[in-house]
Amino acid sequence: EVGVTVEVFDGVSTTVRRFLLHVGERNDGPSVTIIPDPQAVDNSVSGVVAFRVTEDTRRHILDLMLADREHPAESLSVSFISDNLGLVDQESFVLTGAGGQRSLTVVPIVDRFGTANVTVAVSDGVMTTTRVFRLIVGAVNNGPAIAPIADQTIAEVGSLPRGERDAHARHEEPRGQEDLHKLPVGHLAAG
Q: Which one of 28, 44, 64, 174 has the fewest beta carbons within 10 angstroms of its own beta carbon?
């Protein structure tokens, strides 16, 4: 609190007024600093902090330094908002650490690749500070997959001319019904 005096003079007389000025506390928003993991930074994107990871992997990408003038760092809440929920959703962000030092690991949705802009929001309960970074999830060439194949019984159909190598597979249905399928001989293995 401070005493303030205001004097007004019109050339003949002076008027004086005094009052107290109370300066109330102002809640400053929290501060957040993104410290990138150098192994995850993608410098090919200009104008924004960008990180590159590959699909189907769990990757530490950054650390956060949090502070607030009016509140302890332990009380600050951190959330993440993705503009591409098909690539990274709320469950994709794993935040560890405590107080003013937190680490972010990202786990993209399985078999998804692309780009998302991610907003980091840090709140002290009254004010929120945000930072944005770009997450680039690169594609991985996954090998082909095949479902389990039940044992097959091959019935001899007679002799086939050379060059028309195929056979019939007999699949036993639970009710005793038979279903015939043609399978190329080159794809069959005896065992």
A: 174
C-alpha to C-alpha distance for 148 and 61, rounded to whole angstroms: 38
d(CA 45, CA 42): 7
Residue with tokens 């030092």: 101
Query: Apex CA 107: angle with CA 119 and CA 89, to 5°?
Result: 50
pTM of the model: 0.63
- Per-residue pLDDT tens listing for the chain (191 residues): 889 999 999 999 999 999 998 887 788 899 999 999 888 888 887 777 889 898 888 899 999 999 999 999 999 999 999 999 999 999 999 999 999 999 999 999 998 999 999 999 999 999 999 999 999 999 988 788 888 988 877 776 654 444 434 443 343 444 434 444 444 545 545 54
